[in-house]
Every structure is written in structure tokens, then in C-alpha cells.
Amino acid sequence: MTSRTTKSIVTFCYPFILGGHKGVFPSGSYEIIAEDEILESLSFFAYRRAQTYLTIATSGRCQLHSIDHRDLEVALANDRARSQVSKKNITPVFDPSQDRKEQRKIQ
Q: Cα angle vertex 51, ends 47, 54, to 5°?
């Protein structure tokens, strides 16, 4: 059976967990390796995800963790949702338009 391998980088803003793995992965960028198998048909080609790996580089070593791509999608969606909530709660420390108003009142 013919297959293809794709590599991508994902970035987590917050620590995350993945189903089937103990512990929490720290925030940061991770390389994802996905292997897809081709499903041959008479009229078209299609691919099916066969395996997904999360690459973790620590102290000069590289470890491949086999993960479920659906768990990765859930973790990324949770990270995006958490990022959007934190952006809504940010209030500017310095607003230049307010500063100009204060200067006009003083003068």
C-alpha cells in the first residue's frame, strides 16, 4: 500500500494534555509527523490517516510519541479557545488617547 508522510509545526500557548499519555506537555512548538495511506479506487485517490506522531526534543534527544490525531485536534482547539478568552480579558495599561485627554485638561 502506498503512503505519504507530512510534517508540520504546531504551537501551544498553554500546557496541554493528550489522551493516552500521562502528564502535561509544556507549552511551545512541536513537530507533528503524519503518515497517511492511500485508498485506491477506480475513480479517485483518497488518503486515510494511519499514524500521527508528536516529536519532543529534550536535551539533545528526540522522542516520537504516537498520538491520536483527534486528541491533537481537541488539544489545539482547547488552546485556541483559552487564548481567545485571555485576549478578551486584557485591558490596556497605557491608552495613548486617554493620555492626550489628560494633557489637554492640564494645559
A: 130
